[in-house]
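Proteins fold. Shown next:

***
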Amino acid sequence: MNAHPLDNPINGAGLGLRRQFLSQIADNPPEIGFYEVAPENWITLGGKLGKQFRAMTERHDFVCHGLSLSLGSTDPLDVGLVTAIKQFMQEHRIKLYSEHLSYCSKDGHLYDLMPIPFTEAAVQHVAQRIRQVQDILGQKIALENVSYYAAPGQEMAEIEFFNAVVNEADCNVLLDINNIYVNSVNHGYDAEAFLKAIPANRISYAHIAGHYVEAEDFLVDTHGAAVIDPVWKLLAKAYEGYGVFPTLLERDFNIPELSELMREVGVIKAIQNAWQSQHARQSVLSP
């Protein structure tokens, strides 16, 4: 078993920060390894919330997870947005930025994450845009494997496409565990086989979330429900194969009380601790 090799600026179990509970967390911070924010939603934040956010970033580790950079689009890259994100990260000492392997614009925003065709031409197009982003930011970004419901013009498997983009762009990986599970059900592939093909040496951190069951063979990635057991088990499998890496709970809709979110963060911690304990025992028993 190989421990995860990346030297990360974050660790432990994280939580996506939402304005709904910013004041509650600012006044009484829970035990969180790190927080994640979509920079588009926080760059212009001012007033009381802005001050609370500044106090949070001064005391806790944060990562940025982009929503609207539209890496797969044929529209010109929004260099102004990338520059603003760089300034935001410098201002708040945020060391890690991630985005989706998708697009969300075509002559204007589409307000959804659309699938990129799994083709060699798309590999080259997206990788070039990622390299441009990395040049502006002065650092590697982490690329998220996304959920998708159709694959028009497909020339290669999802995992082949994802790995080709990551290798060509020389970027890191944001491993979304729920997206692997959702896609495996919707498209009929082996989730564990997909997981084993991920380049472990590039994993920066992971997402875990809930989804909506439309039918037995059709799941919708909503981030609006509790994480289910098969997804938790897939996270445990990822740790078994790669060692523990930072993992964040995503919840974007139907947001429950903070205590319920912390319960799920606690599950992440428990799975991480179980791997650490087992690994420690194996190290003691090894000759």
Q: What stands out?
A: The chain has one domain: 13-285. The domain at 13-285 is CATH 3.20.20.150 (TIM Barrel). The chain has a mean pLDDT of 92.
